[in-house]
Input
Amino acid sequence: MQTHGIPIEVVWGAFKIGTSIFIPGIDQDDLKRQLRWEMTRLKLKVVIKAVIENDILGVRVWRVP
Output
């Protein structure tokens, strides 16, 4: 996965149900598209929402059962 040409490394095996991660990036639609593709490939269920946190635009991803 990458945002603005910068690779983002996420250890998806350590992404536990009930936790979330924030991924910064201006192009939220592209981030969501990449995340949906990756979650489908890994068969993980998540909720993805575009957010602004500490004045930084990005997406938050929650792992759900």
